[in-house]
TrEMBL record:
HAMAP family: Adenylate_kinase_Adk, Adenylate_kinase_UMP_CMP_kin. It comes from Talaromyces stipitatus (strain ATCC 10500 / CBS 375.48 / QM 6759 / NRRL 1006) (Penicillium stipitatum). This is Uridylate kinase. Residues 142-152 are annotated as: LID. Catalyzes the phosphorylation of pyrimidine nucleoside monophosphates at the expense of ATP. Plays an important role in de novo pyrimidine nucleotide biosynthesis. Has preference for UMP and dUMP as phosphate acceptors, but can also use CMP, dCMP and AMP. Keywords: ATP-binding, Cytoplasm, Kinase, Nucleotide-binding, Nucleus, Pyrimidine biosynthesis, Transferase. The keyword Transferase applies.
């Protein structure tokens, strides 16, 4: 028998934000949190926090995958997301408005998508930020000047691009077949991209607060 997801999609709205490294997932998520009342969960940020958490048994494993631009085993990432969602729901339990989650950088591999929807929550939409590699490359190199991230260097970036094409794009295509994808051209300024996102969300009946 299929497991029942931990959270019902009647009560909890999940929107995935996907796109290559440097497409602007984190940047645009900040806008959406401010204007739409989403709670933002970044899979990459949760993994980086777990990597340095004292006592974590996954630190070395996560460090290896992040540097190599490969995908951390889904059990680790899905548990981090599920627990973060539970903590937010617990904090907000007195609020009448239904919870909206923006999950950025996840699912990056098809097994993660299936496992999450079977055990945590079925998603409502996928916001896909479409961006050419040369634009993402120049953004990441610029970010690398100050980010302190282990993977904002040219070798890791090349590997991340390969993983994105080979492993993460099939996820986008599968959600596309289900009619769940909003695709937005992510070139140009942050403001231009955000205007496009707002227009697309409106057309899908998702309104700002
Ligand atoms: O999304 P972000 O660029 O912060 O992700 C950084 C790295 O974290 C990825 O390159 C990958 O190694 C890891 N990651 C993962 N699974 C996810 C999200 C991120 O393994 N769903
Ligand atoms: Mg990010």
């Amino acid at each position: 028998m299929a497991p029942t997801p931990r959270f019902s999609s009647d009560k909890v709205t999940v929107v995935f934000v996907l796109g290559g490294p440097g497409a602007g997932k984190g940047t645009q998520s900040e806008n959406l949190v401010r204007d739409y009342g989403f709670s933002h969960l970044s899979a990459g940020d949760l993994l980086r926090a777990e990597q340095v958490r004292e006592g974590s048994e996954y630190g070395e494993l996560i460090r290896h995958h992040i540097r190599e631009g490969t995908i951390v085993p889904m059990e680790v990432t899905v548990a981090l997301l599920s627990n973060a969602m539970a903590a937010i729901l617990e904090q907000n339990s007195s609020k009448a408005t239904p919870a909206r989650f923006l999950i950025d950088g996840f699912p990056r591999q098809i097994d993660q998508a299936h496992f999450f929807e079977e055990t945590v929550c079925v998603s409502k939409l996928v916001l896909f930020l479409s961006c050419p590699e040369e634009v993402m490359l120049s953004r990441l190199l610029k970010r690398g000047e100050t980010s302190g991230r282990d993977d904002d260097n040219i070798e890791s970036i090349r590997k991340r691009f390969r993983t994105f094409e080979q492993t993460s794009m099939p996820v986008v295509r599968e959600f596309e077949e289900k009619g769940k994808v909003i695709s937005v051209e992510a070139t140009g300024s942050k403001e231009e991209v955000y205007e496009r996102i707002k227009a697309e969300l409106k057309s899908k009946g998702v309104d700002a607060l």
